[in-house]
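Help needed: design a sequence for this.
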């Protein structure tokens, strides 16, 4: 399969997945009102997807290794179609949580298959750019998701989500029609247990998890705080749409930059801007000003994802870890961060107000940026020597 076709396929898969993940943001205030949800319950609903990803991350990676990326992607899309129909018609919070969990398991499979497909087929000196382009497609899905969520508040969940499930089914057909990827030529002797004992891998996992913590927290307290300041569902959706658009524009460029100049510099810059934006989060008393802060946060986080994911893939190479398992670690880090940020941030906000979780997250980001500054920078990947 050509590089262009591979990117188009994987980009379409992650686009659809993140679209359905992000659809909850503008729906959250409406669901909270209809179902009488507390901040904690709203946080759990948001985190349910990440919980499913956490459960499915390692099985999804193993499936990508043993059955291949194509079958793994198809399995993930099938679960996504089922969960989408379920979320359309289920009416109690418990069942909605369950539908989001199934969606998260499907996302773990789709991402493991797609990322393994990309990473195993690219040399390290091009990996950041390729991952960045796939992430741009994924962020495009998260850009469209809030708009669909806002539309669902007007048109109703049932008809809209049922119709969208047909899009997922069409994508399954397209994926099955693609030629299966060739087996990776890389050594696959590394194990997850061995990898998790290495500081390089643990550090890369943390650099994946930290932006996920911030993102999960803002996805919960951001729309609820905007709603309290008088923003409509459409305005909330527009805020996250603009943030996602800027994030999508940044991601490919940052991925390429990390290939040329190392993974650390863009990560450090993104974390420093994130720290400043989090410290300003509770200051605005008008919805429009808070919207600017949320957009700044999304832009800063856009500088973190591609370098962190490429760093984890590079570490997998160094240990002889199959890229399906490296992708599983990416899913694991992202899901764990989302759960801590969404559920933990929602719970802390309920107890102490929105300032406590944002200040705590700012402290983590600032400390990590400082550690990257004083630590040894990771070099840019070197081109492979011709054999």
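Sure. Designed sequence:
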């Amino acid at each position: 399969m050509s590089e262009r076709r591979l990117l188009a396929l994987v980009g379409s898969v992650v686009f659809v997945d993140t679209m359905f993940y992000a659809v909850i943001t503008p729906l959250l205030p409406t669901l909270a009102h209809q179902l009488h949800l507390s901040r904690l319950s709203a946080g759990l609903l948001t985190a349910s997807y990440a919980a499913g990803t956490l459960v499915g991350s390692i099985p999804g990676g193993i499936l990508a290794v043993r059955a291949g990326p194509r079958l793994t992607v198809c399995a993930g899309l099938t679960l996504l179609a089922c969960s989408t129909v379920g979320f359309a018609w289920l009416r109690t919070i418990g069942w909605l949580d369950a539908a989001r969990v199934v969606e998260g398991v499907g996302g773990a499979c789709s991402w493991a298959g797609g990322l393994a497909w990309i990473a195993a087929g690219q040399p390290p000196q091009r990996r950041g750019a390729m991952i960045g382009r796939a992430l741009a497609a994924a962020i495009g899905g998260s850009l469209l998701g809030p708009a669909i969520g806002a539309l669902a508040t007007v048109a109703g969940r049932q008809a809209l989500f049922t119709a969208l499930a047909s899009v997922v089914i069409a994508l399954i057909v397209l994926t099955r029609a693609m030629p299966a990827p060739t087996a990776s030529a890389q050594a696959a002797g590394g194990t997850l247990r061995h990898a998790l004992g290495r500081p390089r891998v643990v550090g890369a996992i943390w650099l994946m998890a930290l932006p996920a913590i911030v993102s999960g927290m803002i996805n919960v307290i951001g729309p609820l705080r905007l709603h309290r300041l008088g923003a409509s569902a459409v305005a909330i959706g527009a805020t996250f749409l603009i943030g996602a658009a800027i994030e999508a524009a940044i991601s490919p460029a940052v991925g390429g930059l990390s290939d040329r100049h190392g993974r650390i510099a863009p990560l450090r810059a993104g974390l420093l801007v994130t720290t400043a934006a989090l410290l300003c989060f509770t200051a605005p008393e008008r919805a429009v000003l808070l919207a600017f802060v949320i957009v700044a946060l999304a832009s800063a986080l856009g500088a973190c994802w591609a370098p962190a994911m490429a760093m984890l893939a590079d570490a997998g190479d160094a240990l002889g870890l199959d890229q399906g398992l490296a992708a599983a670690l990416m899913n694991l880090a992202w899901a764990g961060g989302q759960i801590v940020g969404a559920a933990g941030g929602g719970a802390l906000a309920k107890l102490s107000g929105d300032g406590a979780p944002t200040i705590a997250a700012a402290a983590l980001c600032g400390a990590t940026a400082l550690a990257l500054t004083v630590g040894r920078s990771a070099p840019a990947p070197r081109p492979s020597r011709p054999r």
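The chain has a mean pLDDT of 84.
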